[in-house]
Design a protein that fits this description.
It is elongated, with a radius of gyration of 31 Å. The longest helix is centred in the N-terminal third of the chain and has 55 residues. Strand 1 and strand 2 form a beta hairpin. It has 238 residues and is an alpha+beta fold. It has one domain. The protein contains four helices and eight strands. Strands 1, 2, 3, 4 and 5 form a five-stranded antiparallel beta sheet that branches. A three-stranded antiparallel beta sheet has the order 6-7-8.
């Protein structure tokens, strides 16, 4: 017995081919959209991580030297040749810059941290016995939107009964919190004794492209830290 197989030899029609192309194009387009979304998310997260790490590094350097303020004290404050920020020669505190002095190996170190507005950089300047050191000022962090200092106080400056070595509850709410750190104008006007500093540092990631929507998704990041200046909390100043 012979078996005869019958095959449809017509092939596929043009309509069927076009439908297959359309379905394939839709699948490819969907895969491409997923790829673009994942690539954008990766770029954004990479920028976020980078800016957060940079802010943390800059803040740690700043806090390191703030903690050293007044170390091996009783040294005459240095008189620099040029003022770093307004009020520097009068040794006034500032809202956007800080001057730190400490002595090591008999030498008076003066460090100044400030924001360079034209370049939007966190700057560090170093003087030893009043002489600016080579390579300074130097940039610690770029793309800085804001650098703000506020101050925790312990009574009035001088040897009077308003000092007890601890931060004052400036707003009298029974708690020591961010509201007890006051602006520079309050410190200067009241001749208050500074023993703590609160630092607010805001920076943004590097611009990817002015027209790139990915950059618009990465907002500036802010880090806030508050410390007591341990060398100034142990004794009264005059």
């Amino acid at each position: 017995m012979k078996i005869h197989l019958s095959f449809n030899k017509r092939g596929i029609t043009l309509i069927e081919l076009l439908v297959a192309f359309v379905i394939g194009a839709m699948v490819v387009a969907g895969i491409y959209r997923i790829f673009v979304a994942q690539s954008r998310a990766y770029t954004v997260q990479d920028q976020v991580v980078e800016v957060q790490q940079n802010i943390r590094s800059g803040m740690e350097i700043l806090l390191k030297y703030l903690r050293m303020a007044g170390y091996n004290g009783n040294r005459t404050p240095s008189r620099l040749l040029t003022s770093i920020f307004p009020g520097d020669f009068a040794f006034n505190v500032s809202d956007d810059a800080v001057r730190i002095e400490y002595a090591i190996n008999g030498q008076l170190n003066t460090r100044v941290f400030f924001r360079n507005a034209p370049t939007a950089e966190l700057m560090e300047d170093l003087y030893i016995d009043g002489i600016q050191q080579p390579g300074f000022p130097t940039a610690l962090l770029g793309n800085v939107n804001a650098l703000t200092f506020s101050y925790g106080v312990d009574g009035r400056a001088g040897l009077d009964g308003t000092q007890d070595g601890t931060l004052d509850d400036f707003n009298n709410d029974g708690n020591i919190d961010d509201a007890d750190f006051v602006p520079a104008a309050t410190v200067t006007a009241g001749n208050l004794n500074v023993i703590g500093v609160r630092v607010l540092l805001t920076a943004r990631p590097e611009t990817l492209n002015a027209q790139d929507d990915r950059f618009k998704m990465v907002q500036p990041r802010t880090l806030v830290s508050a410390i007591t200046i341990r060398n100034l909390c142990l004794f009264k100043t005059n």
